[in-house]
Amino acid sequence: MQIILAEDESAITLAVQDYGKGIEAAALPRLTEPFYQVEPGRHSGGSGLGLALCARIAQLHGTALEFESHPRAGTTVRLALQAAKGGEGDEDEAQNPT
């Protein structure tokens, strides 16, 4: 597994990449549905709520989860968060809160 953090002027992007079995393209749009499991018979101990909750949290922050996956090559999940817009005096306030 690899965790990647990238930043530019407009966003900070977090990506989590694994090198597992991957996910078929037909299943990708359903990954954030509550209780959906790609392999329901697999005993992973989950209930299918984790990605649904993550997607809702991302939505509340004005963004979405993005999935890229290739069978037998792994899956990458990306989340881009809008970078904070700094204004005059923001640095001073952060260093010297009142």
Topology:
Layout: E1 2-7, E2 11-17, H1 50-60, E3 65-70, E4 74-82, H2 90-95
Antiparallel strand pairs: 1-2, 2-4, 3-4
Written account of the structure:
The protein has helices at 50-60, 90-95; strands at 2-7, 11-17, 65-70, 74-82. With 98 residues, the protein is of the alpha+beta class. The chain has a single domain (2-83), classed as Histidine kinase-like ATPase, C-terminal domain (Heat Shock Protein 90), CATH 3.30.565. It has a four-stranded antiparallel β-sheet.
Give the strand tally: 4
Note poorly predicted spans.
none
Strand content: 25-35%
**Number of spatially distinct domains:** 1
What is the overall pLDDT average?
86
Q: What is the rounded distance between the termini?
A: 42 Å
| CATH class type | Alpha Beta
Written as H for each helix and E for each strand, in order along the chain, the element string is EEHEEH
CATH superfamily heading: Histidine kinase-like ATPase, C-terminal domain
CATH architecture: 2-Layer Sandwich
How is the CATH topology named? Heat Shock Protein 90
Helix content: 10-25%
Give the biggest beta sheet: 4 strands, antiparallel
Q: What's the Cα radius of gyration?
A: 17 Å
Tally of DSSP helical segments? 2
**Helix-and-strand structural type:** alpha+beta
Biggest β-sheet: strands ordered side by side in the sheet: 1-2-4-3
